[in-house]
């Protein structure tokens, strides 16, 4: 059995292969909500096969493919390495300073849509499995790679589909979602997305506001009430005091002090507004898309009940329809074996103190916790570029994360 230094040396020896794999993934468009992952799925399956690893592909929805592959010894502990192959859309190509699907390297950064979220992390997971297989590193348990196609638009056809169909199982899970180098995310806020449709009565615009009912005006009133969710005072469970404290410490240490307290408050974003047909027609409909993120101390149902109570006071004609992400806040204890294995190996690789924190967004991690699988997230990222223009990731970060993945797999599966 190779010791840790020898394993790290193997990653260094093959780092060019890792970077090339990441670049190849970046060159394959896999934008969601379009959700077509045929090309990237074929590439990953072929790459695994070329390296002696057979995989099974499951089409959960048209052109959305899940990949499952395993190495190691059955009958022992089970570890899942999970990553999503889809990305958010590029948006306006003209705003990018480089081609979004270039996969080029410049000034020590890999460039392209999905570089940080999360094709670099996905490449690290695939590379880890290939390296362990190639050098026949003995694993006393089973390492399963799950590549899912549908995280960026709610995840219905990815992780939850695999779990509900009992196609993957584990004693722990690592998702290569973007994080800071020293701070994997061991918990996350919940999510509450919905569309608000406000109905009005059309009339000639020259007669407003004497006749008709303006749906846009009523929607503005509704938005003002909805946004008061941020003012709700909440009391998180006492057992989360330490996790909240270190998470707020993380914000300060990473120059995000302006967001201190975000883990204790409901946030509310008014994402889109659509309504009306013409300037001279009183609008009879207005639709608003809302994204609320929920801290510990409240639930999805609690939040929606509050919003309905507020809107009922306005006397408007409205409907609310949930969509996308829906969950309450969730976490994995910091002393869980999977958390300890990842955090300890981050410290070993980087030579600095690592600790787990909360995530202000949400991800596929919630599905694993719903199925009683401890999970955390750790992946390479240039956090400021995620979902934005000119997305990129530092090459050294990609390599260091891969080192953590290799060591974590060996450590976690070896612990009785």
Task: Summarize the structure in words.
Strand 4 and strand 5 form a beta hairpin. It is globular and about 80 Å long. The strands form four sheets. It has a six-stranded mixed beta sheet with strand order 1-2-6-3-7-15. By secondary structure, it is of the alpha/beta class. The longest helix has 20 residues.
> How many individual domains?
2
Low-confidence stretches: none
Q: Which superfamily, in CATH terms, is the homologous superfamily of the largest domain?
A: Zn peptidases
Going across the major beta sheet, what is the strand order?
A: 1-2-6-3-7-15
CATH topology of the largest domain: Aminopeptidase
Q: Termini, distance in Å?
A: 17 Å
Main sheet properties: 6 strands, mixed
Rg, rounded, reads: 23 Å
Shape: globular
Helix content: 25-40%
| Total beta strand runs | 16
CATH structural class of the largest domain: Alpha Beta
Number of helices: 11
Organism: Vagococcus acidifermentans
Enzyme class: hydrolase
Protein name: Probable succinyl-diaminopimelate desuccinylase
EC number: 3.5.1.18
